[in-house]
Amino acid sequence: MKYIEWNIDPVALRVGGFPIMYYSLLLIAGTVLSVWILKRVYKENGMPWEHLQVLVMLSITGLFLGARLGHCLLYEYEYYFAHPLEILLPIRVKTDGTVVFSGYQGMASHGGLVGWMIAMVVYSRLTGEKVLRTLDTIALVLPLAAGFIRLGNLANSEIIGVETDLPWAFIFERVDLVPRHPAQIYEALAYFFTFGVNLLLYRRLGLNRGRGVLLGNTLVLVFAARFLIEFVKERQVPFEDQMHLDVGQVLSIPFILLGVFLLVRGLTGWKNRGQ
């Protein structure tokens, strides 16, 4: 059977010898598109442009720090405890002491979400915006940005799936010659679908009705997809081989439950007010 052979160079171009990765370009593209959408949302709701600037800055900071710390503490604690500088710097120190640019090897979406929520609480304190309304606002576009990140993972031939003989299997030649599930594409499609549902909910409810619905929908759809897709993904670290559910699945469950609670609470409150 003919499978899809994937051997793209993760480096899109070099500027003065410095590598520009497809991952970075896709991350920037997803961020710019998300900000453009949020700019329209802010305008429609009479929210100051200055607040959006603060929101973007804090969101990026919270997502990055949360995702990076989440990966380092949950998946590779022993390594990063011995190499703390590599947590925040995109480098690797080889055994001979030489330092090489490596990019950030490892981000955890669960940690990113926690970091983002903390950042949104800070944003609400600084601007006077309601916390739940703030979370709904950014949750509207968060799956869109996450989808672009998963496409970046595809460009890097990382977060690969387990072996399969399905006709759409990918052979990630930079990893091995085994046909595998393109788990990155599965997740990207799930996230783009979630974004589409969020847009429909926003057009129906706006930001002032059914508070928590956008955030709840995002949590349920994103982490339900993550939970299911983990079954066809390679385990990230060896200790997960001894687990019935991997770390990503275990951490997804409380987020799904929180999302269900927010959805029920928001939709029930909206209907009870007759809106």
What does this structure look like?
It is a single chain. The protein starts with a strand and ends with a helix. The protein has one domain (4-272). The protein contains ten helices and seven strands. The chain is mainly alpha-helical and 275 residues long. Helix content is 61%, strand content 8%. The longest helix is centred in the N-terminal third of the chain and has 26 residues, at 49-74. Catalyzes the transfer of the diacylglyceryl group from phosphatidylglycerol to the sulfhydryl group of the N-terminal cysteine of a prolipoprotein, the first step in the formation of mature lipoproteins. It holds the Pfam family LGT. Its EC number is 2.5.1.145. Pathway: Protein modification; lipoprotein biosynthesis (diacylglyceryl transfer).
Topology:
Layout: E1 4-6, E2 11-15, E3 18-21, H1 22-44, H2 49-74, H3 77-82, H4 85-88, E4 91-93, E5 99-101, H5 109-127, H6 131-139, H7 142-155, E6 170-172, E7 179-180, H8 183-205, H9 213-229, H10 247-272
Parallel strand pairs: 1-6
Antiparallel strand pairs: 2-3, 4-5, 6-7
